[in-house]
Amino acid sequence: MKKLIFSLGILCLFQANSQDQLSLSDAIQTGLQRNYGILIEKGNVEVAQNNNNWGEAGRWPTITLNVNQNNSITDNVKVANPFSLQGQIQSNSVVPAVNLNWTIFDGFRANISKRRLDQLQAETQGNASIVIANTLQSVILGYYLAVLESERLEEFEKQLSLSRDKYDYMKIKSDLGSAVTTEILLEEGNYLTDSINYINQQLAFRNAVRDLNVLLAEDDISKIYLFTDSLNIPDETYTAETLRSRMFTENVDLKKQYITQSILGTATTLSRASQYPSLIVNAGFSENRGRNDLSRTSAGRSQQDSLSRNPNAVFIPNFNDPLSSVTDTYFANFTLSFTLFNGGKIKRAIKNAIVNERVGELRVDQLENSLDRDLLSALDRYNIRRQLYGINARREAAAKTNLDLSEEKFKNGSINSFDFRDVQNNYLSSSILKLQATYNLVNSKIELMRLTGGLIREYQ
User: Fold this and answer.
1) I want to staple 139 with a disulfide (CB 3.0 to 4.6 A). Which of 31, 59, 121, 331 is the partner?
2) Residues 148 and 27 placed together within one structural domain of the fold
3) What is the domain range of residue 314?
4) Is residue 220 exposed (0-12), middle (13-18) or buried (19+ Cβ within 10 Å)?
């Protein structure tokens, strides 16, 4: 068992020497640059920016270019009109055309749509800010959790080292004949128990680092770091009035909800635009270039027979040469439309938009109410955890002093192994509780910063 623990210690020492250093600021920057959720939201913001233009809102006309190519063969087998040509007529035509369609007026819908696109872009950016704030909170807490598990591991390692020394000390006393078998078995059991705790804590530490690597989008999920920042004790004091003022002006969730409410107001305005008439202009130009082959008609065959008898004959028109034509067409049409009745759809749409706007106002009030509750609860937790940290720090200091004194008493035989083990466990428990109290206090501070928009303000 001693060889196993020694091997684990050598392995941890080798890993520590080969680890990359990671500070909290480095972890935050890496998370902002590589976190999958942030990258996804950046893509959504880019799409919203691309859509936010006057062309998407319908301000500009639509211009299209069309080219039609037509081919036909008309076979007049029998004609009743003496002026009609009998036989096959081959026709070919090319018709290029340019069309313009422009809505000149439709109840200011283009202006309203552009304002809505501005709001949608702001809403997307608000969603990105929420994801960034959540990621910052997760990265900071993930970093400190890994630090917490690392410092816990050090405490378990100290406990294990002390147990190992006691076990070796008892074996020496046994060899000298001054220790009984029960004392050796007791120390061996303590040593094995501390070995199990140390191994389990190693697993907890590696799992915390893996969770941090996921937040940082690290390719090597099992990568271990040498953390350069320790758990710092927050010493700030806050007042509820100051925090509430910051929250109502800088909280990212509330900002996004305000934007969503403005979008609902714009939707109401947009639905009212259907009450106005619309004026649409449709203009364009087309050119018809045609070609007709009459050589296979009765007139064409008749000219061919005449030419065979008299090659120098001149015919006007000459049905053996294709006849070409070019026709240009310009047009500009205006359409004024006004919906007189459509079953009340416009009025219902307006009423529904107004109701949705009222519902949005209720959601804003609901969010403000819940955030106010969350802020006061978080502030209470922060203040309570500051007191708990002070108590645990004093308890840990007293336990450390008691451990130092008891170790001397144990060596000179003033206390037995059972009593010294109780002192040893009390010190370990006090150290672990102090570390947990420190992490809880940091967690409360980060929660207050998240609610008041401080994470975006300080770290982005």
Assistant:
1) 31
2) yes
3) 63-104+279-337
4) exposed
373 shares its domain with 446: yes
Give the tens place of pLDDT for each residue, 161-210: 988 988 887 788 777 776 667 778 888 888 999 999 999 999 999 999 99
Same domain, 430 and 290: no
- Strand, coil or helix: 238: coil
Instruction: Give the H or E element holding residue 68.
Output: strand 62-76
Distance of CA 185 to the CA centre of its chain: 57
Q: What is the DSSP letter of 274?
A: G
CB distance 451 to 371 below 8 Å: yes
CA 203 distance to own-chain centroid: 30
- Looking at the structure, tell me whether residues 153 and 229 fall in a common domain: yes
173-194 as b/e: b if 16+ CB within 10 A: eeeeeebeeebbebbbebbeeb
Q: Nearest-CA neighbor of 334 among 385, 249, 270, 277? A: 277
- Residue partners of 312: CB distance under 8 A and separation at least 6: none
Partner residues linked to 331 by β-bridges: 284
Largest CA distance in the chain: 148
Q: In terms of domains, do 286 and 310 share one? A: yes
Residue 449: Cβ within 10 Å count:
23
- Decide: 76 and 67 in contact? Cβ < 8 Å: no
Nearest alpha-carbon partner for 203 in 153, 243, 270, 266: 153
Strands 225-227 and 20-22: parallel
Asked if 249 and 285 count as a contact pair (C-beta separation under 8 A), the reply is no
Structure tokens that stand for 13 in this block: 């020492």
**Gap between the Cα atoms of 194 and 199, Å rounded:** 9
Calculate the average pLDDT of the chain. Answer: 87
Among 334, 364, 377, which residue's Cα sits nearest to residue 264? 364
Q: What percent of the chain has pLDDT over 90?
A: 64
Whether residues 254 and 306 fall in one domain: no
Amino acid at 347: K
Tens digit of each residue's pLDDT (9 = 90 or more) over 325-370: 888 899 999 999 999 988 999 999 999 999 999 999 999 999 999 9
25: CATH: 1.20.1600.10
Q: For the chain, what is the domain count?
A: 2
pLDDT attached to residue 420: 85
Q: What is the pTM of this model?
A: 0.82
CB atoms near residue 234 (< 10 Å): 17
Tell me how far apart the alpha carbons of residues 96 and 345 are, in angstroms, rounded to a whole number: 41
Q: From CA 446, how far away is CA 456, in angstroms rounded?
A: 11
